[in-house]
Amino acid sequence: MPLLAELIAVEKIFPHTTHSKDRLKALVRLLMGRKIGTGSRVLHDIDLQVRRGESLAIIGANGAGKSTLLKILTGVLRPTSGKVMVNASVAALLELGAGFQNEFSGMENIRLKASLLGMSRQELAEKLDDILAFADIGESIHEPVKHYSSGMVVRLGFAVITAVNPDLLITDEILAVGDESFQQKCIRWIEQYLENGGTLLMVSHSMYQVQKLCKQAVWIDAGTIRMSGDVFRVTQSYLAWHEQKSAKERILSRQSNGNGQYRIKKFQLGAAEDTDITELKQGGSLCVEVELNQPDEQAPVVLFGLVRADGTPIYGVSSDQDNIQATQLGNNLCRYRISFDQLALLPGSYSLRAHAMDPQGLRVCDTQELPFIVTGASREMGFVNLPHTWKD
Amino acid sequence: MNKNITLIRELVRREIHSRYLDSISGFVWLIVQPLMLLLIYGFVFSVIFTVRFPEAETTGFLPYLAVAFWPWTAFSEAVMRSVNSVTDNAGLIDKVAISSEVFPIATVISAFIMHSVGYLAVLLVLTAFGVDIHWLGLLPAMIVLVILFVLALALGLLVSGLNVFVRDLEHMLPPVMMLWFFSTPILYPASMIPEKYTHWLDMNPMSGLMTALREFLLFGDYTNLVGLILPVFITLLLLLLSIWFFRRLSPRFEDFF
Fold it and tell me: What ipTM describes this predicted complex?
């Protein structure tokens, strides 16, 4: 697939601008063709490729640099160093109502926005009806935009975008406003657009929307790419990181989808059987025990997932993969026990997740997570120790 | 490029609408405001100071003043409005990939369009009052207006770019323009300038332009095209400088809003 946009080693430093002395100094340096000295670094070491037909989400905490990244991609901002190459027609919706002039009517703003997006007068005349139909704000189109609700502004902005049909569509949190039906309309349009070969780059805090619309994701943290790849992998890590940040509880009941048939009644882990500790020595054993309720004859399947503290999956195994039957305890309870011997994990913090699944092993009914720490003095790198031999 | 032209056209349309046409009196003010200034100057100089100079003997002071006053108004308004044209649109420049120069360009164009209409109206009114306007002189006068426009464009680019970095500029500009107005032969003929200052005034591209306008339109004297060479030269030099200046700065505007 051809490259639509590429960023190579992009760095962005915002110069200090509060004091007029700084501004004058910057002015002189720019006129002499030199770089502006210091400032605050908001992006660094960004390498990114966008190919035709891709749908890429950019996620990250507030202030991580997502919007700056989009601005650099759209050409609004120039990077301090690094290369930006874009060979596509780009339509961007950065923030709510960007490019709208409050004093002017919706209609006049459509004209302005259309010319900003490079539409000629004839093109606009041909597509005006479609735009108005998509925005669907009725007679308010002749009112000044300052009287609009935030939802109406987004409607207008998105409606103009739909008329342009760009190679690359860039949106920044625009679906966060607007009512449910309009959001649906936008999502349907974007899906259609993607189906027809369009390319999407979106910033969103809604992991639902991200997972629905995007196949790839890039996680920006503190100005640089922390993770990129498959959307589910990245969003899950991102969410796990958020959880780590916010919740310190030892047991996190992460998911309960109401199908409470199979629930985790007991979940413990330790260095030996029947212990409940959270610290292990490197190379020791990790013994795990879960008890699940079992309302009928078929025992639920259990899936264990070993993840790093940031949520990166390391290993997962389920009872049905290994053809293991649960031990019946009576009282509608069953038990699984598993032991990971000679634990290959390197020192660090990890979590073990237990998922109760239906007997067919298709649906997750309940999830619990226990954090634990592996201690040791190893200086090896990565997550696990792989068996190896040095040859001469 | 095409995109910028559409955009400039849209911005000009918008500016003309909002500044001049949207308020009912907007269009009237366009004529009335300079007209009132003209009358004030006319009153002060010809009635109170009773200024007399041979150039205005045949035409009268007011027409003599009016022919130069309107182009100056267009020029000075274009430059003074340009100052904020980039900073006022920071919201747009910061959100949309857009060439910042379209804003000062659109501001200068709209000021000149509107004041050209006013100028034409004034010339017609003067004719109606029996002033002998040489309409053939309108052709060379157009050349002068184009030079004036380019000069305004050059300065517009310069001040709008500079204002992003030095915000005090918008306060510094009005007195500077006023100084320029009074040191240009608009209220008086160039011949009234004392000998020892004339070489200073030759540096002022505006004086040659204003003198030429009067020669073309009031006296039907089209011989002095040579007098335009220096203003044209200075204007082009300034334009090149401004373009260089603006290109150097504009990629970084967003960092300084």
Answer: 0.81
